[in-house]
Each structure stands twice: as structure tokens, then as C-alpha cells.
Q: What sequence folds into this?
């Protein structure tokens, strides 16, 4: 054979070999980076924001629960839990075994806030909350706040700085590293920028309180963004309302979901009373928000308030009393801009004094979610409000003692079940775990107590246990050290 | 000849011919018969034989039995020989006496003497008459009068050898003439003392002419007198026994001395200064650009020789002063005009085909590689100006200018990006990286530095200790340097400048070459520049001519191969396979004796042995870790496409990545290369080229289908730049053969499909080359390589990192789901070389340290509470992230606690609450005192600090992976080692204080490097060619 032919054949052979092996090479090295791995949570730290015990007669109960026994399958957790005053050095180990719940009652002048820290596998199944009952007086109310782990961003919608409101922002830093936060506010008339809130120091092991009326006097319908520029904090917002020196109800505003185009606010109370959703647009463009309700009778677009325009940097309150028409339910918001939202339900009492509750926008439940304290010190009932906007769902409620209950939620419906018989009532009520199957489910736990001056209510979102931490794939690359 | 017969009979003149013989048997028969055939024969003949050993004397005896004969010693210079001859011919008063100087290698035409005498007839001022000199064999005009310029460069009255068409017949008065067949008035000769014996064999002719002119005589050229001259001495065919030193040195020295002794007095100091400066500059230029180390050395020695002979110069000047009657200024018109050089340069700039060069009479076998001497342009052309006449140099200059335009966005002193890390401050940093057994890189590394780093260090030392300059030269100068290298190497197969320029430009802007610049690939850049010379060196080592196979060629080719293997060791394999192919090919065609085949095989083995030996500590390491053979230099590969480039793309020499021209542009080169296989001249070169093309493409296919785990990057793919350069060089070589033989091959066929096809291929080639060039020029920015400030760490953090305790910074960058990190130990960030010595141990303390670091990064980014505590054992005090990453990980780092944000511009910096650094002294918790740790001042991997007394059970913990090489002592007492935290090197401390020193003991590493240096020097000496006088 002549040389050029040999050369051409050799080169063509190489091309063919390359194309054949190329496909194999592509298959065998398809993953560019190692998959992320998952690590069990082995340490956590929770802050229960406010145990001051003021005004007189206020009694706060902190429930700290290890829910390992209520998981499916049940497990026994290891490690230890330490409870201490946020600013106090005196720490005491708090054994959660054999009883899975520890309760700490406030003593006037003793605690401000409580820091709960856990190491070992118990950190993955730990939940805590604080329930405050003020049976009478100007701040008569039942309020409930989850004890949160420190974070960097906290969003709230619904505070008020007008006369008649005694709203307070609690910022706590349970770590030994000082934190610094920036608080920004939106009101119904636009953004507010109180100078000293640009850079607010939260020293190590301490709590900082900021009265809303002082930082945003006369501003209505406020939304807050707390951003830790250094370190991490917990934030809680207490809302106390009076009308003409008479109590108009109070609760803590739970931190709501970060700005997104789609938000779901579940947990509206069944029964009479006003229902409101507060929407805030933290972005630079006006948001057009479409509303859809998921009630006990089905899912529909409310006539008259199907769309709301929220102007950039402002908040808006939308009254949902009529479309809700006394049903429990959730509101689904979809917007062309990222928004935040939070719902409020007022429990009126004919001729007596009202109370209210706040419900944050939540993500749907994935994995086991828990509530630490279901007890109302003086008895009362425990309601679980469930919404399944898009698919039918099965919800299983279990207590560490093994008692349980299964609830079905039809697609596009909301429902409320009384759990009192399952978890018990009063100071000894059991914590519980909620696990779901089927379509996305949103759950809110409501405590209700029929007081002498009218019924008291408090809501707490049912949120997922910190089952595991997703560790991102990492790789060493000196390239990142140069610009 | 009627004209001569009709001329005057010169009755008043007598001519004494003095024939000087020195081993001239090759030419004497013709010279003697020419002498006998003169139409106007000399009146007497004296033959001086300088003890010839080749039977010259017998030849003279036979031809001129009547002539007077003298025999002198072999070392007698021409001047002394003539003087001795005149002694035996007594002066004859009353007539005009002439001396006709004849060499044994010159044959005057029959009417030469008559024509010479015609010039002198009736013109008493004419003292010396010279003939027009043609070459011995082909009759080309080689000399028409001599002149010299101030630099001592001799002008022979023409640019190069010319066909004599009468164009030099109007010369008239000249400064001097050559002594071959020159006619000199005996009176003038004796007055001036004849040829100055001090000038021996070189420069005596110019000196004589100059002195005659200075004394008021005239030196004229007789164009009608023609003499054929073998110039046996200057062509090296005759040994210069009388020269008194190496010919090139003596020639150059005498040229300068002649100018010094004859110039105006006030010029002498200036000339001496000029010679010193230009001697240095010229030898450096010859070395760097001309690749003529022999001439560079000769230049230096000649300059030195002039300086040591200034006494002789002064004596010569006073001697000449006695006879001087004409002021030097009036002779200036006879000196070589300065413009002559530039006239020559302009001619060369037209890229015209150079005139045919005279070959030495020993024929070079015209297969494959040709002798280097055909590359050099004539040894008389030592001048710097001549350098610029060379098409290769012009090509280089033009491409250098274009390269600056193409890389206009990169004109910066801190190139980085792609695989390139910014250059360190000085060459010493590179040297120390190369020298050290332990590197403060990552968690601490004992990876041996690659050979390429040593080369870069050497290069940085050459570029006045500035590594950035070396990198700029390599990357920005890649195209011109590669083109120059290819141009000079192509001289082996093609004498046509146009083809050499085309192929070398195409080679230099191949996608692999431009991609190497854009991707910051120093390894590919060096390979692109050196590869053509490697091929040429190997070709020289495997030469067909048995006389030319020599160890120095093997060593030279081996050193070149070692140079590229230091960057791309895979080329060693390529060279081995290619050489085997060539040897088999030569054996199959039966070229040369069997013994020669063995010699060639030995030479090939020698070439292959050199890289292994001179890269020794590292070449062994490459054998252990074969991935290093294709990994290349610098940061981990960044072209991490999931699918490798397809086969056609690789065949078309496209490696992929940034800065790629349209895919088809290399097609004409490859087509032409395959066509080269049909040529019968340089068939071996064409075959070798195609073999290299196939090898290169095969290697490219192989490496792109090998997913390497380079530098911790999970799925980096090897970039096939080096492989495709091999393929491109091979295609270029074969294409040069094809193009060189195209015209005769086409002429051999009647008009048919071939001619249009060839025209089409040429047109396609032109379009492709233009596309390549334009896309290279037009691209501008866009490559990952960029200039500007490379530091990501804010300045204040950089200064925090310089505190005596040597804390470290952790830089994070999130790309998609992946978080990349780098441990930074020097304030400005990583520098060139750091990425090449990244820790690679997959076991032991080093691996545990790497695991601890990666786990700390994961925990930090996942926001695991307490993750901040993991940083202190790693010596990390600061975490740095750019704005985009900072936004994503700020929350997690906030939750990780123990970190405080420090405000900074351009990046976010978190400071750990726990102080951390290189060396920590930990005290255990004891009664009354909690456990505590104190930092001591220490530099990375090295500490010398004052330790206070303390409690028992203390440990000094070095934040480096534990190794038996770490040694610590307290006031001279060795401390015992312990591993802490699973990987850290700890030392047990006594309760007493003292001076604590910690260092890493090199072990055998230093010995190995010294051995490497010794081997390198030995090979270098071996590669030096034996001294040979440069021949014109």
C-alpha cells in the first residue's frame, strides 16, 4: 500500500476510535463533583426569647422536648441538654430521660431569656417553646413562641408602632461571639430607616430589646427584616394590643418565610372574628399578588380581593374575614415579585375581651415536624389546623408515649382536629410529632383556653425537626485564592 | 586574445612572480599551468614552499624546473615568505620592478598579468594592482577590491557571491586588494616593509593596501585581470598553520587591529571602547538569536585579544607614522560605506531567494537533515546588522509586534488566570520552591517540585530575576518565538524562505499554541517554542552521514528533550516511539552500514537517557505517578467539560478550551502533510512528520479520554495541547516537504486534475492561514488569562497575615453546589509554583490534615454550630470570600459562630475568635488553671522563639502534618515527637524555658539536587561541539 493511503487510514482509524471511546468516557465520568453528603445534627442551641414574668401574674412555661421516641421508628437519643439563663453562667444539665419533656417555669426577675443547648443525637430531635398566660389585666392574653436556633435573616410582617400597641423586638445571641445586626423596616407608607438600627450590636450571651413604638412611632402595619451582618442571632417579635385601655389580644409574631414569589399562610382560626393577611414587598418593584383560599369547603379565588397590588417597599393588609367566612384555612399568595406575608386571626368573645394569634408563611412539611409544648397551664384545648392545597394527604400525629392519630385531608381542603384527647391537656400535655404522606401539607398548632374574660388563643407553626445537615461538596482549588 | 596581444609589451617592466606553496597539491597543477600559460609571462619565478607535506614541491619541480625554489618552515606567513623570495632576486636598477604574489590555490587567466601591467603602465602612482577574483569551481565573483569599516568588518566589494556580468568592472581605486595574484611595485614593497608579518594570515592584505594608500600610493583593481581563487585558507580546506590561534578568533582580532593601527590617532580610544561594547553585545546577540555559541566565544576572545595587544598596536602605529603622507580623513572614501550594511538588509527584507551558497567540497548527503553550516549565512557576517537580514529574525520581529497587538489586553506585569498563578516577587522564590523538600502550600506538602519549575527559575534568573518577565516572554512571546524556532528548524527540509515562513507561522498560531496563551499554560508554551528544535536536534543526532553522528549531538538533543520533558514528560515516550520508527525506516531502506545502524541506535539511546538523568529526582517521581506525565504545570485543569472533544476535532488539531479558531483551519496543513508522503526528496522527513502527526493525534485521543484526578479536582480532563503540538509539528514538517517539492512534481505531470487540485489546496491554505492569523489578532481579551491585581484577600487582612505568629487564611468560593477552598499561607495569595507542589499524599498525617481541612470547610459552609472551632488547629484565623460567595455562605458562617465579620472592600472577611498560627504551646488543664494555649512566633515550617518556663505536660504543636523530618530542640536538646489531633506535629516540652527551634530536615533531597546539577553540567559539557573554526 502506498504511504499516503496508510496515513489516511491511520488517521481515520484514530478519529473512529476517539468517537467510540468518547461516548464511554462521557458515561464513565458524568458527575463533575462528588455528591453532597449528609451529616446528623449533633449540636444545637435554642433561645426562648422572653421569660421576664412581667406584668405581675404572667406565667411562662418553657417546654423542652426530646421527640426521638415519637419518630417512626422510635429511637433513643444520646447526648445531653443544658438549660441556662441567656446571660447567666450557671448552667444546669437538663435530663430529658426518662420523661422526654422538661419544663421551666418563669420566676419574676430571674430570667430574661433561656438558652438551651444540646449535643449528641438529641440535638436532632429537640424542640422547645414558651407559652405565656396573662389571665387578666391590660395585657391579658395567651401567647406562644417557638424557641429558635440562631440565624442570620429574620422576617416579620404585622408589627405596629401606633398608640395602643406595645410591640417589642427581642434579639438574642447565645454564642460567645458578639453579633451585629441591621434591622430594616417597611411600613404601609414606605421604608423606614432608623439610624441606630443599621448596626446594632448584640453582645455575646445577651439579649437586646427594641420597642417598636420607639423605632417606628405611629407607623402602621410594619414589616421587619433582621439581618445579622456578623455572627448569628435569634429574633422574636411580641405583639401586644390594647384598645382604649382594654386588652385587644397579643401573641408573638413567628418569623415568617423569606421573600419569595409564592407564599402559603396556613392556620386561620375557625369561627368568628377578623382574618387578615399582611403582605410586604421588600423589593424595588411593585408586586401584584394573586390570592387563593384553601378552606374546609374547598379551594377558591376570593371574589373582590383576588388581586392586590403591594407597592415597592410598602406593606398592605388584606381583610379576608368575608371570604374565609368562619372556616379554618390557608391563603396562597402568588406574586410577580418576591414578597413576605403573615396572617392574623382574632378570636372575639361576645361581650368579653378578644385575643389574637399570628400565623407565618411556612414551607410545606417535609419529614417529621414537632411541637414541644402542647399544654396550656390552666387546661384548655389543643387544635391542629391542616391545609392540603394541591393533593390529598395523610397526617399522622404521634406522642413519645406512643399514642397516635391519623387524619386525612382531602385535596384542596383545610381541616382542623382537636388533639386534646390524644396529647392530653393542662401542664402535663405531651409533645407530638407530625409526619405526612401524600400532597404538601401545612400545619399549625393552636392552643385555646376559655378564660373567664373570654377565650384566649395562641398559634405556633408546626416546623420540621432539624433531621440532618446537608454538607456541600467541597474541593481544594488554589485558583480561588486569586481574583 | 587580440586585445592583450595588441597592447603594450611593457618592455620597461620586469615582473618577479613569487609563488608560495603550503600543502596545495589539490590546486597546484592548475595554478602552475595557468602561470605557464600567461600571454605576458613573468620575467622570473621564485617558488617558496613552506614545508608542504603533500608533494607540492615535486609538482613545482616538474612544472617549473628552471624556477628558483626556497623551502621555509610551515609556520612562515606570506609576508615573510615573499621577503625571503625577494632576497634571492637582486634588484635591477633602471627598470620598473613588480612583484606578482601568487598563491598555490589561485589560477590567473592567461592574460591576467598583461592586464595587471596595463593598469600600471604609465601610472607611477599606482603601487598595487589587484585582479578580479572568481571562485575556483563555479566562477562566481567573490572579490573585487577590499575595504574595511570601523568595526573591522571586511567588505569584499559585493554583497554575496555574484555572477560576474561586468558589474564590478568600474571599481578603480580601492583601499586594498587580496594578495592572490596581486601585482606590487617592488620599490613600494621594500619602502613599506611589505606585508606586516604581525598580521600573519589574516588582515595583512588590508593592512598593506591601507599603508600604501596612506603613503600616497594608489591601490587599484584591474577588472580585465581575472584570477580563480580557491580561498583554501578561509574555507577551512587548508589548515592555518601560520595563524597562531583559532582561525575565527585571529581573523576577527586582526580585523580590529588593522583598523586600530591605521586609523587616525584620536579615533583609537573610541574604537577600543567600541570594540569592547560591541564585542559583548554581539556575542550575546549571537548566542541568543544566532544560536552560534562558537562565534560568540570567538568574538569575546578576539575582543580580549585586542585589549591584550594594545602595545603591539601602538608600536605598529608609530611604525606607520613614518611612512604616512596622506591624512586618514582623505582615505575615508575608500572605507566600506556604512550604508552598505543597510543596503544588504533591505535586500534580505525582500525575502528574495538567497544566492546559492558555496558548499564545502566534502559533500553533505542530502537526505533528511542537512548540515548546520547551510543554516549559517557565512562566517564573515559576524555583524549585528547581518542578523537583521535573516528572514527568521525579521519574521520574529514582525510576529512579536503582532503578538503585542493580539495580546494587548495582557500587557501587565502580573498575568494570571487559567492555569497560571501570578509570578512571585523574585527568581529566588522559584528557586526556593524548587530546592525545598517541604513546601508551605496547602496543609503542608512534601511533593517534589516538577522539573519545569527549575527551568522557569533558571529563565527568571536570566530575565534579571523577574519571574513575571519570564512569564510575559513565554506567553506574549510564544507566537514569535515558536515561529522563529520552527523557521530555523525547517531549514533542514526546505531552502525556500517562503515555505519556511508559511509553515512556521501556521505552526506558531496553531489552536494549541493560542490556547496555551489564553489558558495560561506555561508547559504548553515552552513545548511549542522548543519542540521544533527538539525535532531538529534528534534529526541531527540520527544523521545519515556517519562522520556526523556524535555524542555531543546526542547530548544536545537530549538536553532539548529534557527541557520539554521537564514540562511534559509524555514527550519522552513520543520521542522514543518516533526515534524507533526512524531507525527502523533507515534500517529498512538500507542506508549505511550495519555498524552505522548500531551507532544510530546508541545515539538514540543517548538522547533518551539524558532527560531521565538530568531530571533525576523528579523523573523517578513521574514513574511512580504517571499522571504527572500529562498533567502539565500550574493550577488544576479548568476545561472540565463532561464530554471529551470528538475525534475529528482532535485530528484538526483543536484541543478545545478558550481561544480556538474555526475548526477547519488546520485541514490544509494536514492534507499537505499527507501529500508530503509522495515526495521522493526528504522522504524520510515527510514520513517522520506524518508519524508524528499520527502519534500526536493518538496521544490527544488517549489523554482526553483519561479523566485525571489532578490537584483534587474531581473530574478534570487533560488538555491535549502538547499532544496536538506534536501532531502540528509533524504535519508542518511533512507539509514543508510537500510544498518544497510541489513545483517540480507538478511540472512532471501533464496538465490534469493535479494542477487545479494543487492550486485549490494552496488557496485553501492561504485562506486558512489568514483566518488563523486574523482570529488570533482579532480575539483580544476573553481568555481566562488576564492582567491586573490578583489578590482577593483585602489589604488589611494581608497585613494581619504577616504578624510573627503566621496565621493563615481560608478562602472560599462557591460554584454551583460545590464549595472550592484554598488555604492561604502567604499574604498575597498563592504564587507560581505553589500549585505544582500541592500535597498529594493519600495516606498518613498529610491526608489526615487534608481531611481535617475539608471537613472544617464543609462544616463551616453547612453552618454546623461550633464549626469555627475546627479552624484553630489548622492555623486558620481568617476566612475570606468574594461578594457572591459571601452572600451565599454568610448565614452558615454566622451560625458556625466563633467568627466575626470584619468589614472590608471587595471581599468579606470573618475573623476567628480563637487566635491561631503556626506554632502553639498548649498547657493541660491542671488544678487551679484551665487548659490554655499560647502562640509563639514562627514562620511556615520554621521557628526559632523564646519559650518561657511553664507547667509540666506542655506541648509545642506545629500546625503541619506530622513527619519524622520535623525536628525541634530546646536550647539544643532534641524534643521528642508526638502526633496531636490525629495529624499535627507535636513536641513534648519540659517545664523549663529556653530557645525553641523547629525545622524540617531535608534528608537526601539536597544531595539529589546537587547530583542533578552535576549531571546537568556534565551533559552540558558533553553537548558542547568540538571546537571548529567557523568557515565562510
A:
Amino acid at each position: 500500500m502506498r504511504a499516503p493511503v496508510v496515513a489516511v487510514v491511520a488517521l481515520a482509524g484514530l478519529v473512529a476510535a476517539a468517537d467510540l471511546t468518547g461516548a464511554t468516557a462521557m458515561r464513565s465520568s458524568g458527575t463533575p463533583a462528588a455528591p453532597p453528603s449528609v451529616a446528623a445534627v449533633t449540636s444545637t442551641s435554642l433561645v426562648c426569647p422572653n421569660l421576664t414574668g412581667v406584668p405581675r401574674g404572667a406565667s411562662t412555661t418553657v417546654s423542652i422536648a426530646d421527640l426521638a421516641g415519637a419518630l417512626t421508628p422510635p429511637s433513643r437519643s444520646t447526648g445531653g441538654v443544658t438549660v441556662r439563663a441567656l446571660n447567666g453562667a450557671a448552667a444546669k444539665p437538663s435530663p430529658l430521660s426518662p420523661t422526654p419533656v422538661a419544663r421551666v417555669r418563669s420566676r419574676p426577675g430571674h430570667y430574661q431569656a433561656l438558652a438551651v443547648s444540646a449535643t449528641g443525637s438529641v440535638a436532632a430531635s429537640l424542640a422547645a417553646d414558651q407559652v405565656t398566660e396573662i389571665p387578666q389585666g391590660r395585657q391579658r392574653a395567651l401567647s406562644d413562641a417557638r424557641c429558635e436556633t440562631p440565624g442570620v435573616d429574620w422576617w416579620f410582617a404585622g408589627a405596629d408602632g401606633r398608640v395602643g400597641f406595645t410591640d417589642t423586638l427581642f434579639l438574642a445571641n447565645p454564642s460567645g461571639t458578639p453579633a451585629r445586626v441591621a434591622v430594616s423596616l417597611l411600613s404601609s407608607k414606605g421604608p423606614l430607616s432608623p439610624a441606630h438600627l443599621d448596626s446594632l450590636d448584640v453582645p455575646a450571651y445577651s439579649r437586646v430589646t427594641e420597642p417598636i413604638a420607639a423605632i417606628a412611632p405611629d407607623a402602621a402595619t410594619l414589616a421587619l427584616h433582621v439581618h445579622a451582618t456578623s455572627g448569628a442571632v435569634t429574633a422574636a417579635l411580641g405583639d401586644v394590643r390594647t384598645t382604649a385601655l382594654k386588652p385587644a389580644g397579643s401573641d408573638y409574631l413567628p418569623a415568617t418565610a423569606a421573600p419569595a414569589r409564592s407564599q402559603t399562610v396556613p392556620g386561620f382560626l375557625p369561627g368568628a372574628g377578623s382574618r387578615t393577611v399582611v403582605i410586604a414587598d421588600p423589593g424595588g418593584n411593585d408586586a401584584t399578588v394573586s390570592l387563593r383560599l384553601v378552606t374546609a369547603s374547598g379551594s377558591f379565588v376570593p371574589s373582590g380581593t383576588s388581586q392586590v397590588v403591594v407597592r415597592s417597599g410598602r406593606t398592605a393588609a388584606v381583610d379576608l374575614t368575608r371570604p374565609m367566612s368562619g372556616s379554618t384555612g390557608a391563603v396562597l399568595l402568588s406574586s410577580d415579585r418576591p414578597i413576605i406575608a403573615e396572617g392574623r386571626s382574632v378570636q372575639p368573645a361576645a361581650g368579653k375581651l378578644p385575643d389574637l394569634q399570628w400565623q407565618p408563611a411556612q414551607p410545606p412539611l417535609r419529614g417529621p415536624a414537632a411541637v414541644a409544648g402542647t399544654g396550656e397551664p390552666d387546661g384548655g384545648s389543643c387544635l391542629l389546623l391542616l391545609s392540603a392545597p394541591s393533593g390529598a394527604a395523610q397526617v399522622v400525629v404521634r406522642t413519645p408515649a406512643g399514642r397516635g392519630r391519623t387524619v386525612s385531608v382531602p385535596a384542596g381542603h383545610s381541616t382542623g382536629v382537636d388533639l386534646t384527647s390524644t396529647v392530653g391537656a393542662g401542664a402535663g400535655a405531651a409533645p407530638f410529632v407530625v409526619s405526612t404522606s401524600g400532597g404538601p401539607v401545612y400545619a399549625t398548632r393552636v392552643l385555646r383556653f376559655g378564660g373567664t374574660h373570654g377565650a384566649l388563643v395562641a398559634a405556633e407553626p408546626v416546623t420540621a425537626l432539624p433531621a440532618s445537615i446537608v454538607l456541600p461538596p467541597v474541593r481544594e482549588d488554589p485558583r480561588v485564592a486569586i481574583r | 586574445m587580440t586585445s592583450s596581444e595588441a597592447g603594450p609589451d611593457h618592455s620597461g617592466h620586469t615582473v618577479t612572480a613569487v609563488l608560495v606553496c603550503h600543502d596545495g597539491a589539490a590546486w597546484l597543477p592548475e595554478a602552475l599551468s595557468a602561470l605557464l600559460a600567461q600571454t605576458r609571462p613573468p620575467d622570473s619565478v621564485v617558488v617558496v614552499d613552506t614545508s608542504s607535506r603533500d608533494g607540492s614541491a615535486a609538482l613545482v619541480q616538474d612544472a617549473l624546473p628552471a624556477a628558483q625554489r626556497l623551502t621555509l618552515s610551515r609556520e612562515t606567513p606570506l609576508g615573510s615568505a615573499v621577503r625571503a623570495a625577494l632576497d634571492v632576486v637582486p634588484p635591477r636598477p633602471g627598470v620598473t620592478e613588480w612583484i606578482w604574489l601568487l598563491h598555490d590555490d589561485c589560477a590567473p587567466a592567461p592574460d591576467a598579468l598583461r592586464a595587471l601591467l596595463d593598469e600600471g603602465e604609465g601610472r607611477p602612482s599606482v603601487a598595487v594592482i589587484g585582479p578580479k577574483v572568481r571562485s575556483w569551481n563555479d566562477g562566481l565573483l567573490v572579490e573585487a577590491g577590499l575595504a574595511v569599516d570601523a568595526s573591522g568588518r571586511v567588505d569584499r566589494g559585493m554583497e554575496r557571491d555574484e555572477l560576474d556580468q561586468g558589474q564590478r568592472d568600474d571599481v578603480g581605486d580601492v583601499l586594498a586588494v587580496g594578495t592572490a595574484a596581486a601585482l606590487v611595485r617592488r620599490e613600494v614593497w621594500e619602502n613599506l616593509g611589505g606585508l606586516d608579518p604581525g598580521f600573519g594570515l589574516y588582515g595583512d592584505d588590508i593592512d598593506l593596501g591601507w599603508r600604501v594608500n596612506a603613503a600616497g600610493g594608489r591601490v587599484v583593481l584591474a577588472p580585465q585581470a581575472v584570477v580563480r581563487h580557491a580561498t583554501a585558507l578561509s574555507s577551512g580546506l587548508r589548515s592555518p598553520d601560520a595563524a597562531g590561534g583559532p582561525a575565527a578568533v585571529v581573523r576577527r582580532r586582526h580585523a580590529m587591529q588593522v583598523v586600530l593601527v591605521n586609523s587616525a590617532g584620536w579615533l583609537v580610544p573610541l574604537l577600543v571602547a567600541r570594540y569592547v561594547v560591541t564585542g559583548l553585545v554581539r556575542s550575546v546577540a549571537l548566542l541568543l538569536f544566532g544560536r552560534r555559541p562558537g562565534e560568540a566565544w570567538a568574538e569575546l576572545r578576539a575582543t580580549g585579544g585586542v585589549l591584550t595587544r594594545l602595545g603591539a598596536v601602538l608600536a605598529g602605529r608609530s611604525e606607520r607614522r613614518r611612512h604616512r603622507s596622506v591624512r586618514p580623513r582623505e582615505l575615508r572614501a575608500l572605507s566600506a560605506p556604512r550604508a552598505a550594511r543597510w543596503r544588504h538588509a533591505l535586500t534580505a527584507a525582500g525575502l528574495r531567494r538567497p544566492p546559492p551558497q558555496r558548499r564545502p567540497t566534502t559533500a553533505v548527503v542530502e537526505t533528511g537533515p542537512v548540515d548546520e553550516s547551510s543554516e549559517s549565512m557565512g562566517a564573515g557576517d559576524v555583524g549585528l546588522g547581518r542578523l537583521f537580514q535573516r528572514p527568521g529574525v525579521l519574521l520574529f520581529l514582525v510576529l512579536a509586534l503582532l503578538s503585542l497587538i493580539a495580546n494587548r489586553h495582557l500587557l501587565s506585569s502580573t498575568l494570571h488566570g487559567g492555569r497560571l498563578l501570578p509570578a512571585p516577587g523574585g527568581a529566588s522564590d522559584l528557586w526556593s520552591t524548587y530546592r525545598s523538600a517541604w513546601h508551605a502550600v496547602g496543609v503542608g506538602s512534601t511533593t517534589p517540585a516538577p522539573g519545569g519549575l527549575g527551568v522557569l527559575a533558571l529563565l527568571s534568573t536570566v530575565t534579571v530575576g523577574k519571574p513575571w518577565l519570564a512569564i510575559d516572554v513565554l506567553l506574549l512571546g510564544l507566537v514569535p518565538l515558536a515561529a522563529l524556532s520552527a523557521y530555523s528548524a525547517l531549514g533542514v527540509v526546505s531552502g525556500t524562505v517562503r515555505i519556511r515562513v508559511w509553515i512556521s507561522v501556521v505552526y506558531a498560531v496553531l489552536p494549541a499554541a493560542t490556547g496555551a496563551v489564553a489558558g495560561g499554560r506555561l508547559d504548553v508554551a515552552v513545548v511549542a517554542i522548543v519542540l521544533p528544535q527538539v525535532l531538529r536536534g534528534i534529526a541531527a543526532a540520527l544523521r545519515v552521514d556517519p562522520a556526523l553522528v556524535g555524542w555531543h549531538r546526542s547530548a544536545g538533543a537530549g538536553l532539548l528533550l529534557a527541557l520539554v520533558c521537564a514540562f511534559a514528560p509524555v514527550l519522552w515516550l513520543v520521542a522514543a516511539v518516533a526515534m524507533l520508527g526512524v531507525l527502523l525506516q533507515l534500517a529498512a531502506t538500507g542506508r549505511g552500514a550495519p555498524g552505522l545502524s548500531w551507532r544510530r541506535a546508541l545515539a538514540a539511546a543517548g538522547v533518551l537517557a539524558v532527560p531521565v538523568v538530568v531530571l533525576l529526582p523528579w523523573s523517578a517521581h513521574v514513574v511512580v505517578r504517571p499522571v504527572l506525565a500529562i498533567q502539565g504545570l500550574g493550577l488544576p485543569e479548568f476545561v472540565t467539560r463532561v464530554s471529551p472533544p470528538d475525534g475529528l476535532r482532535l485530528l484538526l488539531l483543536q484541543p478545545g478550551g478558550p481561544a480556538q479558531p474555526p475548526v477547519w483551519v488546520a485541514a490544509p496543513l494536514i492534507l499537505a502533510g499527507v501529500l508530503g508522503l509522495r515526495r521522493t526528496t526528504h522522504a524520510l522527513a515527510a514520513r517522520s512528520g506524518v508519524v508524528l502527526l499520527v502519534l500526536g493525534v493518538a496521544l490527544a485521543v488517549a489523554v482526553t479520554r483519561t479523566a485525571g484526578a489532578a490537584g483534587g479536582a474531581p473530574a478534570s480532563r487533560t488538555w491535549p495541547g502538547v499532544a496536538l503540538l506534536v501532531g502540528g509539528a509533524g504535519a508542518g514538517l511533512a507539509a514543508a516537504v510537500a510544498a518544497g517539492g510541489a513545483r517540480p512534481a507538478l511540472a512532471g505531470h501533464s496538465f490534469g486534475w493535479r494542477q487545479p487540485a494543487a492550486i485549490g489546496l494552496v488557496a485553501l491554505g492561504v485562506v486558512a492561514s489568514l483566518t488563523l492569523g486574523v482570529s488570533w489578532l482579532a480575539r483580544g481579551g476573553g481568555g481566562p488569562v488576564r492582567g491586573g491585581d490578583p489578590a482577593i484577600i483585602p489589604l488589611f487582612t494581608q497585613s494581619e497575615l504577616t504578624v510573627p505568629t503566621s496565621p493563615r487564611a481560608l478562602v472560599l468560593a462557591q460554584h454551583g453546589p460545590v464549595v472550592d477552598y484554598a488555604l492561604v499561607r502567604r499574604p498575597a495569595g498563592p504564587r507560581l509554583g505553589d500549585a505544582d507542589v500541592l500535597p498529594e499524599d493519600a495516606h498518613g498525617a498529610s491526608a489526615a490534615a487534608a481531611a481535617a481541612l475539608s471537613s472544617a470547610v464543609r462544616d463551616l459552609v453547612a453552618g454546623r454550630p461550633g464549626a469555627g472551632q475546627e479552624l484553630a488547629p489548622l492555623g486558620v484565623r481568617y476566612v475570606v470570600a468574594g461578594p457572591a460567595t459571601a452572600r451565599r455562605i454568610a448565614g452558615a458562617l454566622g451560625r458556625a459562630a466563633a467568627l466575626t465579620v470584619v468589614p472590608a472592600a471587595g471581599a468579606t472577611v470573618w475573623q476567628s475568635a480563637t487566635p491561631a498560627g503556626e506554632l502553639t504551646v498548649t498547657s493541660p488543664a491542671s488544678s487551679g488553671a484551665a487548659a490554655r494555649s499560647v502562640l509563639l512566633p514562627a514562620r511556615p515550617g520554621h521557628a526559632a522563639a523564646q519559650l518561657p518556663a511553664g507547667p509540666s505536660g506542655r506541648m509545642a504543636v506545629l500546625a503541619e502534618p506530622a513527619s519524622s523530618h520535623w525536628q525541634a530542640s530546646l536550647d539544643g536538646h532534641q524534643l521528642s515527637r508526638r502526633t496531636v489531633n490525629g495529624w499535627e506535629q507535636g513536641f513534648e516540652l519540659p517545664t523549663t524555658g529556653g530557645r525553641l527551634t523547629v525545622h524540617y530536615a531535608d534528608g537526601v533531597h539536597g544531595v539529589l539536587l546537587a547530583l542533578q546539577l552535576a549531571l546537568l553540567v556534565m551533559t552540558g559539557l558533553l553537548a558542547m561541539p568540538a571546537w571548529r573554526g567557523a568557515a565562510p
